[in-house]
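Worked example 3 (structure in, sequence out).
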């Protein structure tokens, strides 16, 4: 991110936003969201934002490729919830849907989930038989250890694993089987990461057995999220440089007060010989 010079007194940009430029590495949802908010809230001109993507398609992990006739290839389905994904829904609230530009993508997702409700009737199976998951199967000790994990400061948990925190019987409970198959946890994963998920998804506990809180997009997430966001950004003038891998980033202090130069080196694939540099100027409000 390359900022225009700022007014030291209040941090406001000097001379408007026309000269402010932003360069984003990768075209995953993080960069797409950053570009959208730089335009909407930061007042940047879309034409001054460049996204470098080393692959041939935008979206990063939110992949999905194919057609109804020949099938789709998708690495996985990503679940989201209304309660925990408020930032994503805010982003999608100002992106027009591709099927109906009168509606936003978030309205499209709400309407889809109002119509198609998730409700698992066989959350856990053993030897082909459906298990009764009406109880989470937690003992009082398991409950205490869960509360203890949620309350523990991260600095105290350090590099501990989940299995270092719970007694072995915890890993035989319905709760653990549902938890680890929902969020892809293993007992040797980080206790801190597990704690963060407990905080983020505690509201799912009452509907955990049916996954009723898990929301989906009408199509795969590339078609339902990445495509409308990139179309909107392109409409604003954002430049997408595909097959362009950023290989280096240098910062150089110039003699001009408070102005730095940054240069990114970017190799265009599949011909790495066409390496080129771009020089970016920005000022550091702290003078460093
Ligand atoms: C199978 C699967 C299932 C998932 N399930 C869930 C889920 O259920 N719920 C959930 O919330 N999340 C889920 N996730 C995680 C979620 O999809 C990711 O956290 C999120 O999409 C990451 O976005 P990002 O923009 O940070 O990074 P990425 O999506 O990884 O994007 C990074 C982009 O940068 C590009 N890039 C990297 N280096 C360079 C470089 N040097 N130069 C140029 N380009 C570069 C990459 O090609 C890529 O396109 C899942 C992920 C996968 C793969």
């Amino acid at each position: 991110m390359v900022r225009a010079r700022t007014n030291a007194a209040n941090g406001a940009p000097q001379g408007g936003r026309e000269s402010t430029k932003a360069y984003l590495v990768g075209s995953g949802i993080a960069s797409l969201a950053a570009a959208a908010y730089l335009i909407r809230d930061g007042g940047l001109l879309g034409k001054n934002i460049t996204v470098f993507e080393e692959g041939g398609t935008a979206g990063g992990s939110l992949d999905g490729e194919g057609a109804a006739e020949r099938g789709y290839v998708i690495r996985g389905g990503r679940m989201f919830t209304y309660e925990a994904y408020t930032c994503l829904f805010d982003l999608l609230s100002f992106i027009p849907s591709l099927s109906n530009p009168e509606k936003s993508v978030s309205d499209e997702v709400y309407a889809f989930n109002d119509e198609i409700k998730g409700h698992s009737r066989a959350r856990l199976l053993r030897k082909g038989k459906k298990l009764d998951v009406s109880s989470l199967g937690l003992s009082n000790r398991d409950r205490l250890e869960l509360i203890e994990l949620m309350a523990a400061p991260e600095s105290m948990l350090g590099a501990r694993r989940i299995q270092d925190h719970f007694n072995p019987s915890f890993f035989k409970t319905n709760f653990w089987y549902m938890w680890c198959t929902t969020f892809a946890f293993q007992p040797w994963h980080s206790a801190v990461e597990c704690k963060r998920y407990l905080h983020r998804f505690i509201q799912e506990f009452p509907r955990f057995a049916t996954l009723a809180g898990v929301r989906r997009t009408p199509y795969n997430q590339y078609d339902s999220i990445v495509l409308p966001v990139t179309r909107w950004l392109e409409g604003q003038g954002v430049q997408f440089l595909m097959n362009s891998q950023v290989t280096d980033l240098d910062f150089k202090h110039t003699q001009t007060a408070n102005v730095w130069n940054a240069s990114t080196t970017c190799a265009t694939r599949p011909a790495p010989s066409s390496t080129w540099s771009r020089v970016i100027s920005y000022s550091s409000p702290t003078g460093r």
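Notes: The chain is about 30% helix and 15% strand. Residues 221-235 form the longest helix (15 residues).
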